[in-house]
Amino acid sequence: MRKITVGITGASGSIYAQRLLAHLDECPDVMAIDLVVSQAGIRVVREELGINVSGAGTRPVRELIGRDSDKIVLHPASDIGASIASGSYLSDAMIVVPCSMSSLAMIASGVTRDLIHRAADCMLKENRTLILVPRETPLNAIHLENMLKLARLGVRIIPAMPSFYHFPQTIDDLVEHFSHRLMDHLGVTHEQKTRWEGSRKNRPENNKDAEKFENHT
Fold first, then answer.
1. What angle do the packed helices 101-109 and 141-152 form, to 10 degrees?
2. Where are the beta strands (DSSP E) in 100-151?
3. Lowest CB count within 10 Å: 24, 45, 84, 189, which one?
4. Dist. CA 118–CA 107, nearest whole Å
């Protein structure tokens, strides 16, 4: 049973966080989820998903995943006294999804202006799993240097890049596949149906979606 910390910042792509949280909440491998949404993240979630996740209590979580949760605890981004602000709190992994370039720079520099940055700093100093999901394009040299610095410290940099080898037909297919890839890196189980099983089985002529594939080429 794992404890997972999830941070949502002000980069575009809040649907990835929404879907990942819903899956983690259902996952039997996960016993607790600590959630922090930055001020910029609150605004982006509102603009992209039409959801208000400001405030405290259970309402923001219910708004975000569409149901009440016994696993997810929402912490204010300003609460530096929260459990996840200490390295003595045994969080198994942390993921920041999506991760803005500002938050990435803060984490790379060891600057802790909010609870997301502090929790990430704890994961680094305790040598625990930290995953950042940047969503920005194009990337300038500063962005790339910050990512390289963190990667050298063992941070997993997983850009929000959709894949197409599973023949997605909708945006939801893309989001689902990427969300399950994030679960792989968090070390939790799932029943993803579109794992890569080798090119022979997935050639268009052998795939059940061959006709759809041909119509799109």
1. 50
2. 129-134
3. 189
4. 8
Cα 177 to chain centroid, rounded? 13
- Tokens describing residue 60: 């923001």
Q: Residue 110, SS3?
A: coil
CA dist 131 → 76, 144, 187, 208 (Å):
20, 16, 12, 34
Q: What six digits make up the tokens of 90? A: 């045994």
Q: Domains in the chain and their CATH numbers?
A: 2-215 (3.40.50.1950)
Q: What is the DSSP letter of 129?
A: E
| Residues 6 or more apart whose Cβ sits within 8 Å of residue 144 | none
Q: What are phi and psi of 198, to 5 degrees?
A: 105, 145
Q: Which of 106, 103, 107 is nearest to 17 (CA)?
A: 103
On the CB side of 181, CA atoms within 13 Å amount to 21
In this structure, are residues 63 and 69 in contact, taking their beta carbons and an 8 Å threshold? no
98 closest CA partner among 166, 18, 177, 27: 18
Q: What is the pLDDT along the chain (217 residues), one digit of tens a residue?
A: 899 999 999 999 999 999 999 999 999 999 999 999 999 999 999 999 999 999 888 899 999 999 999 999 999 999 999 999 999 999 999 999 999 999 999 999 999 999 999 999 999 999 999 999 999 999 999 999 999 999 999 999 999 998 888 888 999 999 999 999 999 999 998 877 656 677 755 555 555 554 554 555 4
